[in-house]
Specification:
Has antibacterial activity. It comes from Rousettus aegyptiacus. Residues 22-51 form the Beta-defensin domain. This is Beta-defensin. There is one protein chain. The chain has 71 residues and is α+β, with helices and mostly antiparallel strands. It has a domain at 18-58. The protein has one helix at 2-15; strands spanning 22-23, 28-31, 39-43, 49-52. It has a four-stranded antiparallel sheet, with no helix packed on it. A hairpin with a 5-residue loop joins strand 3 (39-43) and strand 4. The longest helix has 14 residues, at 2-15. The protein is elongated.
Amino acid sequence: MKLVLLVLTVTMPLAQVIPVKKCWGKLGRCRIMCEEGELFYILCNAEAKCCVNPKYVAINTGFSNYTGSLE
């Protein structure tokens, strides 16, 4: 029983999840590879990319000179 307690005491801190570094106003996550459906816009550090879901990225349409006529 003491051996089981010792093993649990040693392995529990090792099993904790490493906190994920956030980016893009806390809407993105720093990863080596982005998951399917995520986009990469900026770098978090030398090896990690800021992976963001496209629904959180504003669409830059630029300046439009459209007046509604067909000419």
